[in-house]
Amino acid sequence: EVQLVESGGGLVQPGGSLRLSCVASGYTFSSYWMNWVRQAPGKGLEWVASIKQDGSEKKYVDPVKGRFTISRDNAKNSMYLQMNSLRAEDTALYYCARALSGGASYWGHGTLVIVSS
Amino acid sequence: QSVLTQPPSVSGTPGQRVTISCSGGSSNIGSNPVNWFQQLPGTAPKLLVYTNNQRPSGVPDRFSGSKSGTSASLAISGLQSEDEADYYCATWDGGLNAYVFGTGTEVTVL
Q1: Residue A13, exposed/middle/buried by CB under 10 A (0-12, 13-18, 19+)?
Q2: H/E/C letters for each residue in A32-78?
Q3: What is the mean pLDDT of residues A27-51?
Q4: A10-12 vs A34-39, strand pairing mode
Q5: What mean pLDDT do residues B91-108 have?
Q6: Rounded Cα gap, residues A102 and A79, in angstroms
Q7: CA–CA distance, A11 with A18 (Å, rounded to integer)
Q8: CA A87 – CA A84 distance, rounded (Å)
Q9: 3-state secondary structure of A82
Q10: Are B21 and B62 contacting, i.e. CB atoms less than 8 angstroms apart?
Q11: Shortest Cα distance from A112 to chain B (angstroms)?
């Protein structure tokens, strides 16, 4: 059974940093693009970042470029999102998702990030 | 503000057929396949339709997707109470170099 478990969320002050983690199980982690998608309270879905199977290609939505860094460790079946210079508008539930395109998409339950003083 | 526009809400009675539209442009729907995601209340999104009209295993054939030009749609036939959820279209946008989600549609079963 495919499982994606996010962790690392919490309350942080504006300008602070957080590192989110996503641990995958139940499939060959290194075979898929991985993604972070967020959902602000009561709002829709917003793609945040994606990383290729071997980590050689990374993509980001414009509002997080230069502040967030996506990475992965295939030996640990894990993906990460380093978030720096956090802003109030980054407050959201952050989902780890496998393969947003094609038929293999699968999502974790999310980890909540609250940016507030 | 998303580049993919969906109606905020759609409603129907049990057994009825409802459709959700997703309007985009040449850089997104016009040139890339569309996925649809279902988000039941309080849960994570789940893939419902991929590559315009394909269903993952386990998704009932009551759900069907289509695409024409720069628009896509999701149809739910034989509407059931458990279909009450938010639905999102999504695709890659080559102009923005970003994956984009639709604005989302809340389906209510009356």
Answers
A1: exposed
A2: CCEEEEEECCCCCEEEEEEECCCCCCEEECHHHCCCEEEEEEHHHCE
A3: 98
A4: unpaired
A5: 97
A6: 20
A7: 9
A8: 9
A9: strand
A10: no
A11: 13
**Closest Cβ–Cβ partner in A62, A95, A100 for B44:** A95
Using CA atoms, how far residue A92 sits from A36, A102, B85, in Å, is 12, 25, 19
Q: What Rg, from alpha-carbon coordinates, does chain B have? A: 13
Q: Mean pLDDT, chain A, as a whole number?
A: 97
Best of A46, A51, A95, A101 to disrupt the B interface (most B CBs within 10 Å) is A101
Whether the predicted pLDDT of A7 surpasses 90: yes
**Amino acid identity, residue A19?**
R
| B1 has a pLDDT exceeding 90 | no
| Distance between CA atoms of residues B25 and B29, nearest Å | 6
Residue B84 has pLDDT above 90, yes or no: yes
